[in-house]
Amino acid sequence: MDDLNFGKRNKRGDWAPNQPAETAPLFTFPPQLAAILKWLPHYFLPWNLIFAVSALAYWAWIIPPVETMQTLSLGWISRLYAVNAIAVFLFYGAFELHLYVLKRQENRFKYNGKFPAEQKSNAFWFQSQNLDNILRTFLSGVMIWTAVEVGMLWAYANGYAPWLGFAENPWTLACVALVVPIIHEFHFFCIHRLIHTPFLYKWVHSVHHNSVNPSPWSSLSMHPVEHLLYFGTAFYHLILPSNPMIMLYQLHYAGFGAIPGHVGFDKVEIGKDRLVDSHAYAHYLHHKYFEVNYGDALIPLDKWFGTWHDGSPEGEAQMQERYRRRKEKLAARKARLEAEGAAE
């Protein structure tokens, strides 16, 4: 398939889509009903449906009985960690194998024309982005994911979280399930801005940003503090009228849902003539420029706070103008402090 029908490639081999990144039409005013109806299938297919089905599968076949979860024990906790680890290995590994090992679509639709395996760096353990990312995913990411999952299931089993039944509260739970992605977006934007503050960026978030050219295993390659903040999205269900299955969906949206934003390709080729959008461009631009697109564009929070970059020349100009204004402000502050020091 010719990716130049959908975008352009520069001299370095980096690909960019013809159309700039867009925010979802959910929060536009006045409401645009036609745009919402056109966009709505993308809210469910394919990614959100995959994460919801995986949560249902967990509840049906993996999660132990309520009586078991009332007591923390090594047996069911270790089993849950093993299942999470295997699921991550298979899901993340499938994208890694298809796109980065076998390179079945070569660099078609790939934002950064280079592959991480081609670039060694001292920023990573063993100078390997892939090995570093894999180790951080399993040694910290899956462990903290499981710890949050266990804690929430234990809270439900012991009556510390509001557990509504589907038979008695179908509409309430349907509404909560529908806003799971919105909860994730709000939470992700808030913690993302927090860990971009200088101290937390240096000691925590820089681990994730070492992967300037992200690949599937970069998705959960984070510092343990960031893992805890990231999977903390499940804690909203301690106060929401919810259900353990929806809480699992929230966790799976975070855990498995990190893949599309870091897959490194705009579209994944399925067979010879089918494409699946990753919707990763906005987050790729965050990895490229660091100080834009703190959210994933479901809620236009970056537009509201002036940090949106859609990949267009206009977006680039706006970003450079923000940098210029900040540089002038810092220079003025430095000059003022120096003047005050000289006066003393």
TrEMBL record:
The chain crosses the membrane at residues 43-61, 81-102, 134-157, 169-191. It holds the Pfam family FA_hydroxylase. It is found in: Membrane. Its main location: membrane. The keyword Cytoplasm does not apply. Keywords: Membrane, Transmembrane, Transmembrane helix. It comes from the Bacteria. Residues 178-307 form the Fatty acid hydroxylase domain. GO terms for cellular component: membrane. GO terms for molecular function: iron ion binding; oxidoreductase activity. InterPro entries: Fatty_acid_hydroxylase, Sterol_Desaturase_Related. GO terms for biological process: lipid biosynthetic process. This is Sterol desaturase family protein. It comes from Rhizobium lentis.
